[in-house]
Amino acid sequence: MLLMLPTLAYAQINTERVMTIARNALYFEDYVLSIQYFNQVINAKPYLFEPYFFRGLAKINLDDYQGAEADCNEAIKRNPFVVGAYQIRGLARIRQSNFDGAIEDYRAALKYDPENLVLWHNLSLCHIQKKDYEAAKEDLGKLLKISPRYMPAYLMRGEVSLQQKDTLQALQDFNKSIDLERYEPDGWGARAVVYLAQGRYKEAEQDLDQAIHLSARNAGYYINRALARYHQNNLRGAMRDYDLALDIDPNNFLGHYNRGLLRAQVGDDNRAIEDFDFVLEMEPDNMLAAFNRGILRAQTGDYQGAISDYTNVIDEYPNFATGYYYRADARRKAGDMRGAEQDEFKLMQMQLDQRNNAQGSSQGNRDVADNAADSEAEGEGKTRKKSDKNIRNYRKIVIADESEMEQRYTSDYRGRVQNRNVVIKLEPMYALTYYEKVSDVKHTVHFHRAIDALNQEKILPKPLRITNMEAPLTEQQVKFHFALIDSHTAAIVDNPKDAKMRFMRGLDFYLVQDFDSSIEDFTQSLLLDDTFFPAYFMRALVRYKELEYRKAETGLLENAGQQTSGVHEESGVTAIDYEVVKKDLDNVIRLAPDFVYGYYNRGNVFSLLKDYRAALADYDKAIELNPDFAEAYFNRGLTRIFLGNNKQGIADLSKAGELGIVSAYNVIKRFTELPE
């Protein structure tokens, strides 16, 4: 018993050391790496609450809200008195729009820590999200009693007052926030919004000058200042602000649309067209942008382009008289007299209808067409809300809708892996190879007894690895494998009945990208020994890669180098070709029913054929055989999302991220974005 004590002490110290390393990684925002360490602690001591809590904290920083909530559930089961667990779970629930659940968590946490400002802050935001403004004001009042100088509470209460149309109270709170924190840009920006709504454009511009001075990388401040300048007829200044906003946020809709309008006003037609081109790429159905672009195209001599835009607008708004007037003009200039006369006849009919309805006018077609638009523009001012689709407001500057207030509980973390723009596609097929890329996060060693036995025979030039992260060969390795092909060829001549020698040369051909020779050698290996499943496995992989190469070679992939789902008849690749791949994998599974990678690869083939139910069955089996198979969770998650089951899909992606697949967090973020 005494001899066992050092071993037990070592295990205890080792667990504590891993926990310390994990928390250091969490502190320095290396969230994915920290999760791997927390996994080790949980596996060693599953009764502890700390690793679940801190793993939940790491996950929430990766926008894995379902996973964070699940970990906090486990932490609270083990210790229901930890305030932080309720706080993190509440935040995870907020991000999933479960505001009632978050309110329960914050109220529970406040029983143990009644003066926690963050808890009161987030509780108030939950009430705001539910539009329970009285409850929000009540909680903010309690918060300000605890901390009268807590500036964000004044900002939130001011925003609540704005929602209640109480601009005087809002101004008081925003003034107070500026008095407390003059070097905080949010107060200046919030007060400027009130001034804009009141028509106090000069004061709004001054406040936005201050906000921009304190936070020069906020595109919204430039957008708002451009609006203030526009109302003061400072078009050049407004355009400069839109330029600056688009430098910061190149995809900003308001920036492109409004800059296009201003460029058109100052005669910069070609660059105005560029802005509307961008808007229409973002929103192809935006008829107001299409009509503006049509006018600009006509002014630059592109009459056919203008006619196309006008036609799209008229198809959507068949009673829009202005559209017929402009299209008639463009058709006449393009030499389409018949088309122009048809449009003019339509205008005449509309004029007669107006007269018959006692709404006629003695003006000409141009006046008839513009009368309604101009009167409406004059009556409603120079701006319109983004959600306003009234085609007659095409000349108006766009302003943001009154959306839900900004949620200030989110922060911008440095180096957040989920913000890396990854392509949403399946994790790749597994292969048997000698070379594997090194991952900074995932250090799984894939094992199967048959492959290990093959390595133990010492007939291979290098240990065979099971991986889906194949490393490209260096120049020296290429030379090495060409030399091996020669030596293996000589050995095959001496012993043509050696199935494993054929398999080894097939691997060499595969590594030097000679797929046809590789398939031939794997086939010969199987003719010599039809029970040698690694040859079936590799022949399936090489055939699959050859089919993908053929599709890419014909230019049918949507993006160069990216896998696309589906089969392309035009490339000569059909579902029958993939059936051949699947048949090889069927044989792998028949000969080695515990070889998990056979199910995984076959699941990928089914998914590519869009047989998602069959793919799910294979991923289920792979996970049954190996509950820590990260790639199977990832691909099953995507497959479930393809079938419309987002909740279960995100749960699988969360598990994949937990097991080390970094891109899972980016995919989770895309499918859990809060509604605007």
Low-confidence stretches: 1-13, 358-379, 404-422, 555-566
> What class, by secondary structure content?
mainly alpha
Based on CA atoms alone, the radius of gyration comes out at: 33 Å
Average pLDDT level = 85
Task: Please report which band the strand proportion falls in: under 5%, 5-15%, 15-25%, 25-35%, 35-45% or over 45%.
Answer: under 5%
The helix count comes to: 32
Can you summarize the main beta sheet? 2 strands, parallel
Main sheet strand line-up: 1-2
> How many beta-strand elements?
4
Distance between the termini: 64 Å
Helix content: 55-70%
Overall 3D geometry? flat
Structure write-up:
The protein is an all-alpha fold and 676 residues long. It contains 32 helices and 4 strands. The strands form 2 sheets. The protein has a two-stranded parallel sheet with strand order 1-2. Strands 3-4 form a two-stranded antiparallel ribbon. The protein is flat and about 95 Å long.
Brief rundown of the structure:
This protein has helices at residues 5-27, 31-44, 50-61, 65-78, 83-95, 99-112, 117-129, 133-146, 151-163, 167-180, 185-198, 201-214, 219-231, 235-248, 253-265, 269-282, 287-299, 303-316, 321-333, 337-356, 365-380, 449-456, 475-494, 499-511, 515-528, 533-553, 575-591, 596-608, 612-625, 630-642, 646-658, 663-671; strands spanning 383-385, 397-399, 431-433, 465-467. By secondary structure, the protein is mostly helical.
